[in-house]
Design a protein that fits this description.
By secondary structure, the chain is mostly helical. It is built from 6 helices and 2 strands; from the N terminus they run αααααββα. It has helices at residues 19-31, 39-55, 75-87, 90-102, 118-122, 144-148, and strands at residues 130-131, 134-135. Strands 1-2 form a two-stranded antiparallel ribbon. Helix 3 runs antiparallel to helix 4 (90-102). The protein is globular. Mean pLDDT is 78; it is low at 136-140.
Length: 159
């Protein structure tokens, strides 16, 4: 049967920190068999994926091809916090954004963006759009960046 798209998985990326994790991943991969999931199991995966995707506003994979930002903005981190606002609630998204941008030794806030567009050029998924110097990428919509932007190019628009 294959995946819902009719393709088999050919590459799996797995973060590993210890040799035991490498060995476990090699063991699992060597035991895996193509088309081993039932139709019902694949349908459950598809339903779960659809439910998750309903809440995700920016389908950023966190690949960081948009990085490094010349201004030091943590673009994948900002997208992640924005998505968390919708998956885990406003407070969780704001807390994550604040902790992962503002509280760093070198701040990586979205408010540092000057709309240069280098991230938009580098993003392989076309998730970042810059129009007339305005970054139209998503954020957690708290408004802090718009108030702090030295170029006055940010506007927060609620969906």
């Amino acid at each position: 049967m294959g995946t819902p798209l009719g393709m088999e998985v050919t590459v799996i990326l797995s973060g590993m920190n210890e040799i035991e994790q490498v060995e476990e991943n090699v063991r699992i991969a060597s035991e895996a068999k193509a088309d081993s999931l039932t139709k019902e199991e694949l349908e459950v995966f598809e339903q779960v994926k659809q439910e998750i995707n309903k809440k995700i506003k920016v389908p950023c994979t966190g690949c960081a091809y948009c990085m490094p930002c010349p201004q030091g903005v943590d673009i994948p981190g900002c997208f992640s916090a924005y998505n968390m606002r919708y998956t885990d609630g406003w407070y969780a998204g704001f807390k994550t954004y604040f902790m992962c941008t503002t509280l760093r030794k070198n701040q990586t806030n979205a408010s540092k963006c000057v709309g240069c567009g280098k991230c938009a050029e580098a993003c392989p998924f076309g998730l970042i759009v810059v129009t007339e110097g305005n970054p139209a990428s998503k954020c957690i919509a708290c408004g802090i960046c718009a108030k702090a932007c030295p170029m006055d190019v940010l506007e927060v628009v609620e969906e």
